[in-house]
Amino acid sequence: MLPWKRVLRPLTALLLAAAVAAVPAATAHASSAPTTGWNDYSCRPSAAHPRPVILVHGTLGNSVDNWLSLAPYLEDRGYCVFSLDYGQLDGVPLFYGLGPIDKSAEQLSAFVDKVLAATGAAKADLVGHSQGGMMPRYYLKFLGGAAKVNALVGLAPDNHGATLSGLTNLLPYFPGASDLIKATTPGLADQIPGSAFLAKLNAGGDTVPGVHYTVLATKYDEVATPWQSQYLSGSDVHNVLLQDLCPLDLSEHVAIGLFDRIAFHEVANALDPAHATGTTCASAFS
């Protein structure tokens, strides 16, 4: 049997590498979203789309790279679109979502207030990828967000944890590994199934009254696994498997948030259910 100290660091590195592989590279763009296009604070919501849409990136993502496709997609449909960076660790540029998730939720809370004040809207809609689809639930449940949010749409959200295709199940075999991850990247530790954060988040029910929830999952997800764990239970929840809409959709955890227009069509439906249209494989060209 190998000494645990000899395998602890490689295991941690493997966990981090798997997480990095699940998000877009952030080296080609600045970490602040554009002030033209989306994050335009002079934008005023229309009567057709009366709520601003706030995009919440995933672990190791940022406010630009995660949304290079979805933000323009929603802008073209008449929405005021905003995005934020959250969960930055000291000395780690470009890659966000690594800080304690409860603190990230506080950052989201402040950003929602900023957007509502700028746009004059009473409520916002939230669309998040991966951790960005799960973290807002803390804001809704514990930080008063339910009074300020109409809908939460999660793209591959790890609502009940991310096992990385079972990789996190190896952690108990390496004493000290969990403590090391918690000390260095608490945002990752919070997403491991069985964490204290997830226990608190999901205690007493997945949802809060007054918010419309949509979960978009893909059966090819390799991060938030098993993919069924992404689903929420509640009276106002719409859980969707993309392959039920288009069996040809091969998107996995990254693609569903980055460029899957079939998923984007369902996002648009969730944001404006009164004018929803059927999502099919042809939605990839809409």
From TrEMBL:
<keyword id="KW-0378">Hydrolase</keyword>
<dbReference type="InterPro" id="IPR029058">
    <property type="entry name" value="AB_hydrolase_fold"/>
</dbReference>
<dbReference type="Pfam" id="PF01674">
    <property type="entry name" value="Lipase_2"/>
</dbReference>
<protein>
    <submittedName>
        <fullName>Alpha/beta fold hydrolase</fullName>
    </submittedName>
</protein>
<dbReference type="GO" id="GO:0016787">
    <property type="term" value="F:hydrolase activity"/>
</dbReference>
<feature type="signal peptide">
    <location>
        <begin position="1"/>
        <end position="30"/>
    </location>
</feature>
<keyword id="KW-0732">Signal</keyword>
<dbReference type="InterPro" id="IPR002918">
    <property type="entry name" value="Lipase_EstA/Esterase_EstB"/>
</dbReference>
